[in-house]
Specification:
Blueprint: E1 5-7, E2 13-15, H1 22-33, E3 40-42, E4 45-47, H2 49-61, H3 72-92, H4 94-118, H5 122-149, H6 153-162, E5 172-173, E6 176-177, H7 186-195, H8 197-202, H9 206-223, H10 226-244, H11 251-269, H12 273-279, H13 285-304, H14 328-336, H15 338-357, H16 363-382, H17 392-408, E7 411-412, E8 463-464
Antiparallel strand pairs: 1-2, 3-4, 5-6, 7-8
Helix pairs in contact: 1-2, 1-5, 2-4, 3-4, 3-15, 4-17, 5-9, 7-9, 7-10, 10-16, 11-12, 14-15, 15-17, 16-17
Length: 476
């Protein structure tokens, strides 16, 4: 996939044309685009196309781990996966625990490592964003006839090909049928479509945004789910905040302080608390009440099984409640303990700090950093109202790996795409002085204005590695 046009924070255009690494392309196809009807059963194991591909790619990437320098967030991902494995074996026994932990490691750690290992340059990351938008557009187009007719055309075709029957979800909201497209549940399609908004926004021109953003909203809307709509609207709000605060000094610190104050007010100044407030942002009042009840009943069990968690199906609850959990962070604590959730949050925080420490002025890198940061904020908030299951679990891990790859990616050298100066031509062909080459022009420092155009199409950009020491003002 070739890179698309990116708009810098100053309005300048930057283009980097690079292809997406083949392992990343195949992983996104098998994880996000192949319907569940193409799954196979091997004895007691139910293997989806994504799991089959991840098993194969594991043997490819393990020898390549030594090619990258492991950072603190990489080690946290490894420790988290090991902690989850111990928790599953402790809770479910050796046989069932190994099976569950194996699938979890495939969808969480291996997906992360594929992005971390193969995405090396900022142009490759841009090509990933372009492909993600193409998949969002495909799901949005498929969602429209589903929302109108209620028929699951993709799953019907898959069932006709393989004979595998998957019982699709059917429900009406807001006068439309909730669409699934290529996913197993409407909420999964909605989370996927809405999550791409920030990355697409910051790598598009104003003209491209005019049709790309409505297409993303189309896929989000036909999921008819509160969590994706919350993620979409939150990203629009954060994009607006980013735009109007560009001249504010230390805006990240000030905004974070404001969010912290808001959290304290909601948590201790109201009778609902922060989680209760989030549970109110739903399309169904019954759903709001039920999610609050889930948190209220399950958090006591989490405190009793603080370190390694317990079987979520056994949490203490009234008889009218089922075992399903609609809060991803609560579900993580229930399955593998509070330290497991802490490691996930710490990983994201360390990646964000690593991105903030890179004093790059290359427009495309700056925009990708903004898009990734706002996207992760929206996903963290949405995770409090929905469980990341099915295809969204590896998607969330891929987004974490995308941020880690961005923190270590190579960016084109400033001015590397400029033409070489023409050699000096003497005024006369005849001279008694020996011909000397022109003296090189020495630059006293970095240019005062960032490069506003990347390498020409077909040219190979010259990359520089992330600097070990940085100078200049801290990015805001």
């Amino acid at each position: 996939m070739s890179g698309t046009t990116a708009l810098s924070s100053t309005g300048a255009i930057s283009q980097v044309h690079e292809k997406m690494p083949l392992p990343v392309l195949l992983m996104l196809i098998f994880v996000l685009m192949v319907p569940i009807e193409f799954s196979v059963s091997l004895g007691p194991l139910f293997l989806t196309p994504s799991k089959l591909f991840l098993v194969l790619i594991t043997f490819v990437i393990l020898p390549k781990i030594s090619d990258i320098k492991l950072r603190s967030y990489d080690w946290l991902m490894l420790i988290h996966s090991g902690w989850a494995t111990i928790s599953f074996v402790r809770t479910y026994g050796m046989a069932d625990g190994i099976e569950r932990s194996g699938f979890y490691v495939l969808e969480f750690l291996i997906v992360y490592l594929v992005a971390r290992i193969y995405l090396r340059t900022v142009g490759q990351i841009l090509s990933v964003v372009g492909f993600l938008f193409a998949m969002v557009a495909l799901n949005a187009i498929l969602a429209v006839p589903e929302g109108i007719t209620g028929r699951r055309y993709v799953h019907e075709i898959g069932r006709a090909i393989t004979g595998f029957y998957y019982n699709p979800f059917h429900e009406q909201r807001m006068g439309i049928w909730r669409s699934m497209a290529l996913f197993e549940h409407p909420i999964l399609m909605g989370v996927f479509c809405s999550s791409a908004l920030s990355l697409v926004w910051f790598t598009s021109t104003p003209q491209q945004r005019m049709w790309r953003v409505p297409l993303i909203f189309l896929g989000t809307f036909f999921a008819a789910s509160s969590a994706p709509l919350l993620a979409f609207m939150l990203q629009l709000y954060l994009i607006g905040i980013e735009r109007i605060t560009r001249k504010v000094k230390a805006r990240v610190a000030k905004f974070s302080a404001g969010v912290a104050v808001l959290w304290v007010v909601l948590q201790y100044g109201t009778n609902r608390g922060f989680i209760g407030f989030l549970s109110l942002i739903v399309l169904n009042s019954h759903t709001a009440y039920y999610r609050r009840a889930q948190w209220r009943e399950a958090i006591d069990d989490v405190q009793r099984h603080f370190f390694f968690g317990f079987d979520p199906a056994t949490f203490t609850r009234p008889r009218w409640m089922i075992s399903s959990i609609d809060n991803n962070w609560l579900l993580v604590m229930m399955r593998s303990g509070v330290p497991s959730l802490f490691m996930i949050f710490a990983t994201i925080l360390m990646i964000w700090l690593a991105l903030a420490k890179r004093r790059e002025d290359y427009p495309l890198f700056v925009n990708l950093r903004k898009g990734w940061g706002l996207m992760m904020i929206a996903l963290l908030v949405a995770g409090a109202t929905v469980a990341f299951f099915g295809k969204v679990q590896p998607l969330f891990s891929f987004y974490i790996g995308l941020g880690a790859a961005l923190a270590n990616c190579l960016v084109p050298q400033t001015g590397s795409d400029q033409p070489e100066p023409a050699p000096a031509v003497p005024a006369s062909r005849y001279t008694r002085f020996p011909e000397k080459p022109p003296a090189p022009i020495r630059s006293r420092g970095e240019p005062t204005r960032p490069v506003t155009a990347g390498p020409a199409s077909g040219a190979t950009p010259i990359y520089r590695r992330p600097p070990t020491t940085t100078r200049g003002p801290r990015p805001t």
